[in-house]
Each structure stands twice: as structure tokens, then as C-alpha cells.
């Protein structure tokens, strides 16, 4: 179905360039699962200090696109990516930057909170430990604390850092995952529907957190919630069946979309 | 269709649906009942047949350790003393209890009451402490297995004398000794501290137990690391191509190959080609390792697959290399399952006799093995050997050996459950 709808000479509407400092730029990105084309010729830039929301109906390739940005698609054997994706100056698919290095610079938060079945401390400390970011125990302790603080979790867990992370509530687990992602000081954080498994209160906390985090990171977030995209993002990209239909400032997308498909989706007629 | 008719239709179906459910539940209960019944019959029969093997009739004798029997030339040389006439000493003591028996043939019948293990016991005592020579000691000594069987009620005394392996005179003397309180059933320590013997009262399980333990250690040391590494490679690193598919199919086939074939392989490769000793736990362990290896691969792959992919993503997402994600996160989560599967595979290997027979572990071995290269018996083969022995005493020994084997299995399976519960992660 996906392949039928992909149109080779489709041109993305709106403005794919960011006005901020470019952190990641994607040029002519195509993704194939075996013979099926999942993404068609995607061009987009991601800038510092902004949240880019990826919206669109299920199966449109948002998550696939997100997973291209830290090469997590590599784990799928049949998946093939073409085109150029640059993290700052380096092409991430050409071998200029090692995949482990790439993932250290591009953090990711998943749809379902997935803390390691280890202590809260170990969850956050794992990344810095394997990369050797800290040199002493004190430094690591401090990094863990700062990361938890930034994730807005420290006050809730500081007395029980050595209890299992899996024992936390869903929202706390998700913030733990965010703390884990920022502990390795990435340039960019990818979030794949980070609130879809959470209740409204936990969702609000995460949204506030995203607002704070965007000051220091570039954030790319997949979301199914229009209102969430409107609340937290500065730019929004609408995907439809493997095509990037339209990229614009969030305000523009929601108030005055250029493409008919975007208009339909925003007004609730597709998806 | 109106609402009432739908209600009627559902109501009509409801009865049949519930009936089906009830019937299915009864099938389940019935199968459990049958399984438990057979298990109960099995255990009861083994325990009833075998419990008497854990004690053994012994006689209390006053033994004069006379110099002229033990060391007539007063050499004080251990080698001389070793060949002393300890049987003679015991016989003298026995005769003195029955002064009325004087005929040579009758005396001989009396002598036959004793186990040949009795004189060995005295010999050991004297060799350990030479100062005992010339003294008199009171000691419990083992009786012959026929006497043991008579006392345990396994011999029908109403049969004509020629049809029994124990004579009227012997029976009456035993009765006399029993009324004097000189014969008693004692705990059969021999069963647990000695190796095999042709005399059932001297036969023990220790040789087989040590042999099996040595074998399983070797099996574990070889099959576990190999199996787990193979599983990790196949599950995490191997490319998905025809060749790997072919290997996978063959591993599954390998797990189903009859064990005797592994025995033949071991005979051809380890013994004939590599020149390893026959009947040795080393070879047994290698053969069982070959047999257990595919089982461990299958168990390990299944538990690796059951680790949620979100953990994989999480590890890769923070920048762990593939190796780090496997050894820091996936393997620890899969380990309880791997261990359980491996121990169950090992338990199967422990009960295996066919491949061991092929590599000569069916030999009659008296000594307790001290290294994996010594000749040795193994528990299941010991059961086979004893079940095959004609003496009445070996019937209960067979059941006793089965009980020991089952205890060993029970211990391993409990270990598997304990490990699983201890390391299982609750989500």
C-alpha cells in the first residue's frame, strides 16, 4: 500500500530549513524494507533550541524516519537507507562517524518507557560509563544527579537511587529514560511518542520538561497528539504514506496549512 | 433481527459453550490424575522395593586377634600381616558361639553366614593399628547377602531345603543368634562409601555417583559455554541467509538424534581415533556434552528471543556497542532461562545410559574414580548392571540406586527452579 502511494517527483511544501543553527540535515533520504519503499526522498533540517514535531497518520513513516537519525534501523536486516544525513558536518551513513559515536551524540527516548532492569542510578550511569565520559566516581555521581535533576526526577528519587528503575511509575520511568538520554550529553534528542503510554498528568510533566530541554538540545519528536504538537513544538512536519508533505512553523501548519492532505489531517478528516 | 431473538440465540448457544468448557476441564483433570497415579505407583514400588537396601544385617562378634593367625612369625611387617588368616579368626569366634556344631560340613555352613567383607573389615582395623594384635575386640560384622535376605523376609523358609540357597542348619543358627540379640539390622553405610562389588552386601553406589558427577562437570564445562556462545552468535550476529538456516535446521535435528548414536560417535572419535581411555568419565562427559549441546543452544536462543526488544533499543540508543548491549543487558536477562534449559538438558544427560554403554562405561569397576581418566561406572549404568545381576540382594540395591539417581535429578531440577526464581526479573 505504502509503495503505491509514493510519488517519485513529489516536492515537500513549506520551508524545510531551520532558522536556528543546523544540527542535523537530511537530504534525499529514501528508506526501503526489502522491496517496499517506506520513505520517499525526505529533505529536512533540524535546528538547535527547537522542537520539531513529526505528525501524520499511523504507518506514514514518522518512526522509521526518526530511527534513521540514529541509525537504529541498522538492526533491521531488510532495511536499506539511501541519501545523505549529516550530523553537523559529518555524514552519518558514510562511515565518517562511527555508529556508536553517533548514538552517543543522538539520544533517544522511546514510546514505551524502557528503563534497564537495574537500579535508577545504574540506568543513568550506564551511558557515561561505557563511553568513559567521567573519570571518577564522584564525577559520575554528580553527572547522575544533574541528569536526574534536568529530567525533573531527582526530588522524587534521590532517597532511593539504588532501587530498581522498573519499580517507578510509568511517567517517572519515562523521565528516567530522558535522564538516561541526557546523561551522555547528546546534541539532539529523538523522542518517539514519549507520552503515548502515560496519563495526562505525567504527560504534562514531560511536556514541560521538553520545553526546558529544548534550550540546550535539538529535539525531534513523533507524536499522535495534535494538541501536544501545538503545545511543545516550534516546527512541525507532516508525513503521509512515506512522503514528507509539508514542513512549516507549527503555528503556520495548524492555522494555515499549504497542502490539502495536511489540511485534512489537521482538521481530523484523515488519520 | 430483533433484540429478543439475539438473546434467545445466545442463550441457546450458552449452554453448549459452557458444556464444552466443562468437558475440556474434565479432560485436563483426568490427564493430571493419570499422570500423578503412574508417578505414585512408580515411586511407591521403587521405595518399597528399595528402602531395605539402606540397612543391612550385621552380627556382633567377640573376636580374638590371635598372633598365630595374623602374624605367626611375628614379623610386624605390614605385607605379612596383610595376608594373615583373618577368616580363620572370625570362624573361630563363630564356632565358639555354637560349641555343639562339630561336623566339618556343618562348620562350613556356619562359615558361609559371614560376608567376605567381614574379614576385610578386621584386616583394615589391624593394619591401621598393629597394637590390636593379641587383644580381643567386640565388633559388628556384615553377614552374607543370603542371610540378609532371609532376615528381611525375602526368602521363603517353607520351601524344601534343596530349593533354597540357605540350609536348615543355617536358618536355625540365625534364629538362635537373633534371640540372643547378636544379629541386628544396621544402617548400610557400605552402600554410600564403596564402589561396585559382585557381593551384593559389599556393593556401593559411591563409584557410580562420583563417576556421574565427574561426567556432568565435564559436560557442563564444555556444553554450556559452547552452547551459549553458539546461541548468541546465531541469535545476534549471524547474517540471515540460507547457510545459517541450514545450520539452524541441523541443530534442531541434532537435538533429536538418538543418544546411542552419540555413543557410537564417541567410541569412533574419542576412543578409537583420539585414543582416550575406555570407561572414563572424560569420554562420557564429552559424549554427553555433544548430546546436551544442541539442547542448550535451543534453550538459550529461546530465552534470548524472549528478551523484550525495547531493552535492545534502549542499550543501543545510549550508544552501547552490539557486544555491550548483549553482555550488559540481554544476556543477564536471558540467563535464568538459559540456566533452566541447560540444567534440564543436563538432567537428561545424567539419566542417559545408552551412549555410556557404547563407550565401555558398562564395565565392572570396583574402584572409586579419582580423576576423569580413571575407569568408572555411572548411575544409570549401575542401575542397569545391578538389575542384570542374578543375586537376590541386587534387587533392592537396584531400587536403591534408582532412588539415589532420582534424588540427584531432583536436586538438579530444584537448582534450576531456584536459579530461575532468584534471577528472574519481574517487569
Strand and helix map with partners:
The complex is a heterodimer of chains A (271) and B (427).
Chain A lengths: L1 H4 L7 E2 L7 E12 L2 E12 L3 E5 L6 H8 L9 E9 L2 E2 L7 H7 E4 L10 H12 L5 H14 L3 H4 L12 H14 L4 E5 L7 H14 L4 E5 L3 H7 L2 E6 L2 E7 H6 L4 H7 L5
Parallel strand pairs in A: 1-11, 4-9, 4-10, 7-8, 8-9
Antiparallel strand pairs in A: 2-3, 2-5, 5-6, 10-11
Helix pairs in contact in A: 4-5, 4-7, 5-7, 7-8
Chain B lengths: L2 H48 L4 E10 L2 H4 L7 H5 L3 H12 L6 H8 L4 H13 L7 E7 L2 H7 L16 H12 L3 E5 L2 H4 L12 H32 L4 H14 L3 H15 L7 H25 L3 H9 L4 H29 L3 H5 L20 H9 L5 H31 L4
Task: Describe what you observe in this structure.
The complex is a heterodimer of chains A (271) and B (427). Chain A is α/β, with parallel strands linked by helices and 271 residues long. Chain A has one domain (2-266): 3-Layer(aba) Sandwich (Rossmann fold), CATH 3.40.50.300. Chain A contains eleven helices and eleven strands. Chain A has a seven-stranded mixed sheet, with helices on both faces. In chain A, strands 3-2-5-6 form a four-stranded antiparallel sheet, with helices on one face. The mean pLDDT of chain A is 87. Chain B folds into three domains: 3-51; 54-188, no CATH class; 206-423, Orthogonal Bundle (MetI-like fold), CATH 1.10.3720.10. A three-stranded antiparallel sheet of chain B has the order 2-1-3. The longest helix of chain B is centred in the first third of the chain and has 48 residues, at 3-50. The A-B interface holds A 70, 72, 75, 77, 100-104, 107-108, 110, 112, 114-117, 126-127, 130-131, 166, 177, 180-181, 183-184 and B 239-240, 308, 310-321, 324, 328-329, 333, 425-427.
Please tell me what the overall shape of chain A is: globular
What is the CATH class of chain A? Alpha Beta
Number of domains of chain B: 3
Strand ordering within the main sheet of chain A: 1-11-10-4-9-8-7
User: How far is it from the N-terminal to the C-terminal residue of chain B, by CA?
Assistant: 47 Å
**Mean pLDDT metric of chain A:** 87
Distance between the termini of chain A: 15 Å
Q: Largest beta sheet of chain A, briefly?
A: 7 strands, mixed
Q: Name the helicity range of chain A.
A: 25-40%
Number of structural units classed as domains of chain A: 1
Structural class of chain A: alpha/beta
Q: Label the CATH architecture of chain A.
A: 3-Layer(aba) Sandwich
| Succession of helices and strands of chain A | HEEEEHEEHEHHHHEHEHEEHH
Percent helix range of chain B:
55-70%
Q: Roughly how many Å is the radius of gyration of chain B?
A: 31 Å
Principal-axis shape of chain B equals elongated
CATH class of the largest domain in chain B: Mainly Alpha
Compute the number of helices of chain B: 18
Amino acid at each position: 500500500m505504502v509503495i503505491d502511494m509514493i510519488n517519485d517527483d513529489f516536492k515537500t511544501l513549506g520551508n524545510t530549513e531551520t532558522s536556528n543553527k543546523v544540527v542535523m540535515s537530511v537530504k534525499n533520504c529514501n528508506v526501503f524494507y526489502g522491496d517496499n519503499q517506506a520513505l520517499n526522498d525526505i529533505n529536512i533540517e533540524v535546528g538547535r533550541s527547537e522542537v520539531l514535531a513529526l505528525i501524520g497518520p499511523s504507518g506514514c513513516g514518522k518512526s522509521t524516519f526518526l530511527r534513521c537519525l540514529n541509525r537504529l534501523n541498522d538492526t533491521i536486516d531488510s532495511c536499506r537507507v539511501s541519501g545523505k544525513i549529516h550530523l553537523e558536518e559529518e555524514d552519518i551513513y558514510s562511515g565518517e562517524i562511527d555508529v556508536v559515536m553517533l548514538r552517543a551524540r543522538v539520544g533517544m527516548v522511546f514510546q514505551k518507557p524502557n528503563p534497564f532492569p537495574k537500579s535508577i542510578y545504574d540506568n543513568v550511569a550506564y551511558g557515561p560509563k561505557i563511553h568513559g565520559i567521567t573519570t571518577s566516581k564522584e564525577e559520575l555521581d554528580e553527572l547522575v544527579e544533574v541528569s536526574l535533576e534536568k529530567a525533573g526526577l531527582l526530588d522524587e528519587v534521590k532517597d532511593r537511587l539504588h532501587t530498581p528503575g522498573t519499580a517507578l511509575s510509568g511517567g517517572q520511568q519515562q523521565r528516567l529514560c530522558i535522564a538516561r538520554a541526557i546523561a551522555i550529553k547528546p546534541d539532539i534528542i529523538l523522542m518517539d511518542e514519549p507520552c503515548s503510554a502515560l496519563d495526562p498528568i505525567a504527560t504534562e510533566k514531560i511536556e514541560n520538561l521538553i520545553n526546558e530541554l529544548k534550550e540546550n538540545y535539538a529535539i525531534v519528536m513523533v507524536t499522535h497528539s495534535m494538541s501536544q504538537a501545538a503545545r511543545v513544538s516550534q516546527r512541525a512536519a507532516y508525513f503521509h504514506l512515506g512522503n514528507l508533505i509539508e514542513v512549516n512553523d507549527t503555528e503556520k501548519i495548524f492555522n494555515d496549512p499549504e497542502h490539502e492532505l495536511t489540511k485534512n489531517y489537521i482538521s481530523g478528516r484523515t488519520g | 433481527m430483533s433484540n429478543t431473538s439475539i438473546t434467545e440465540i445466545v442463550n441457546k448457544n450458552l449452554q453448549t459453550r459452557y458444556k464444552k468448557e466443562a468437558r475440556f476441564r474434565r479432560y485436563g483433570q483426568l490427564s493430571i490424575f493419570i499422570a500423578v497415579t503412574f508417578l505414585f505407583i512408580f515411586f511407591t514400588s521403587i521405595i518399597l522395593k528399595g528402602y531395605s537396601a539402606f540397612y543391612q544385617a550385621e552380627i556382633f562378634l567377640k573376636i580374638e586377634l590371635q598372633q598365630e593367625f595374623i602374624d605367626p612369625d611375628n614379623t610386624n611387617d605390614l605385607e605379612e600381616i596383610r595376608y594373615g588368616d583373618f577368616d580363620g579368626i572370625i570362624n573361630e569366634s563363630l564356632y565358639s558361639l555354637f560349641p555343639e556344631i562339630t561336623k566339618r560340613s556343618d562348620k562350613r555352613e556356619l562359615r558361609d553366614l559371614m560376608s567376605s567383607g567381614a574379614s576385610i573389615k578386621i584386616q583394615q582395623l589391624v593394619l591401621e593399628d598393629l597394637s590390636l594384635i593379641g587383644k580381643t575386640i567386640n565388633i559388628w560384622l556384615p553377614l552374607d547377602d543370603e542371610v540378609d535376605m532371609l532376615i528381611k523376609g525375602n526368602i521363603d523358609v517353607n520351601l524344601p531345603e534343596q530349593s533354597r540357597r540357605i540350609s536348615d542348619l543355617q536358618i536355625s543358627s540365625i534364629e538362635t543368634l537373633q534371640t540372643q540379640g547378636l544379629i541386628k539390622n544396621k544402617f548400610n553405610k557400605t552402600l554410600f562409601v564403596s564402589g561396585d562389588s559382585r557381593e551384593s552386601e559389599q556393593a556401593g553406589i559411591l563409584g557410580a555417583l562420583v563417576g556421574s558427577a565427574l561426567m556432568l562437570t565435564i559436560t557442563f564445562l564444555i556444553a554450556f559455554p559452547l552452547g551459549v556462545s553458539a546461541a548468541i552468535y546465531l541469535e545476534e550476529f549471524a547474517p540471515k541467509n540460507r547457510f545459517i538456516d541450514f545450520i539452524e535446521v541441523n541443530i534442531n535435528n541434532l537435538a533429536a538424534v538418538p543418544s546411542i548414536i552419540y555413543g557410537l560417535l564417541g567410541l569412533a572419535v574419542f576412543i578409537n581415533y583420539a585414543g582416550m581411555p575406555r570407561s572414563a568419565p572424560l569420554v562420557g562427559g564429552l559424549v554427553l556434552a555433544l548430546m546436551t549441546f544442541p539442547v542448550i543452544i535451543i534453550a538459550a536462543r529461546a530465552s534470548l528471543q524472549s528478551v523484550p526488544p525495547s531493552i535492545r533499543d534502549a542499550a543501543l540508543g545510549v550508544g552501547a556497542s552490539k557486544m555491550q548491549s548483549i553482555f550488559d543487558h540481554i544476556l543477564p536477562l536471558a540467563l535464568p532461562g538459559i540456566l533452566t534449559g541447560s540444567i534440564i538438558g543436563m538432567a537428561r544427560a545424567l539419566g542417559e545410559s545408552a551412549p555410556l554403554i557404547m563407550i565401555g562405561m558398562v564395565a565392572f569397576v570396583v574402584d572409586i574414580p579419582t580423576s576423569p581418566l580413571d575407569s568408572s561406572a555411572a548411575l544409570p549404568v549401575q542401575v542397569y548392571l545391578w538389575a542384570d545381576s542374578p543375586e537376590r540382594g541386587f534387587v533392592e540395591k537396584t531400587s536403591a540406586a534408582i532412588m539415589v539417581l532420582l534424588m540427584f535429578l531432583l536436586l538438579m531440577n530444584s537448582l534450576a527452579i531456584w536459579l530461575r526464581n532468584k534471577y528472574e526479573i519481574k517487569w
